[in-house]
Design a protein that fits this description.
Elements: E1 5-9, E2 12-16, E3 20-23, E4 36-39, H1 49-55, E5 61-65, H2 69-72, E6 78-82, E7 87-90, E8 93-99, E9 115-121, E10 124-128, E11 145-149, H3 158-168, E12 172-176, H4 185-195
Parallel strand pairs: 3-4, 4-5, 5-6, 10-11, 11-12
Antiparallel strand pairs: 1-2, 2-3, 7-8, 8-9, 9-10
Helix pairs in contact: 3-4
């Protein structure tokens, strides 16, 4: 599964399977067309209209938090706005939205109903948590691969991310949300050191 995943920087991932799925495209160097784009929330480094337009076709399906729908509707024919704990089916792809919020910060309030996503495709599941701290709802996440923010400031830091791995128990854990706006390569390496062999830096 990991071999089909590209980390494109910050919080951006591309899944290359029977369909091509992007999460939070931002500062893209690639313009490989997307079948599905998942947007976790409306902050500029997660909802980047210029980057969405690089990879979207009219038949691309965009799944997003509900506050993003209006901005994305002109770009594609189908935009699915979701609150946490909702589900969507896009062909053979199953998408579950899960909560993403801060516990001790003000950047991502729980009441905003911003999302993480568990996406099932090709008999595997990936979890993109969005911008979040370690939250109790992670205990219910079932996934093969978890992307976890490690940069701190706006999200959990590498220590909390390592604790989140214990809650989620994925087969693989991949650090994100570092190296651009916040967080360093050192944060990613410290996460790997804490998590051990199932942690992968991409």
């Amino acid at each position: 599964m990991v071999k089909n995943i590209d980390f494109l920087g910050h919080a951006t991932f591309r899944i290359n399977g029977s369909k091509t799925i992007y999460f939070d495209p931002y500062q893209l160097q690639s313009d490989k067309p997307a079948d599905v784009i998942c947007i976790t929330h409306s902050h500029f480094d997660h909802l980047s209209l210029d980057d969405v337009k690089k990879i979207a076709r009219r038949d691309t399906v965009i799944v997003c938090s509900k506050d993003c729908v209006e901005q994305l509707t002109p770009i594609v024919d189908q935009v699915i706005g979701m609150d946490p704990f909702q589900n969507a089916e896009v062909g053979e792809i199953s998408i579950e939205s899960v909560p993403a919020y801060n516990i001790d910060k003000e950047f991502h309030p729980k009441e905003n109903n911003w999302n993480g996503y568990v996406v099932a495709m090709d008999d595997s599941k990936v979890y993109h948590p969005g911008d979040t701290d370690k939250i109790p709802e992670m205990k219910a996440v079932q996934t093969d691969v978890a992307f976890l923010p490690v940069g701190g400031t706006y999200t959990m830091d590498y220590k909390e991310a390592a604790e989140a791995v214990e809650l989620i128990n994925p087969r693989y854990a991949i650090p994100m949300h570092y190296g651009s706006i916040v967080g360093t390569d050192s944060d990613a390496q410290k996460f790997v050191d804490l998590v051990g062999s199932r942690a992968v830096i991409m």
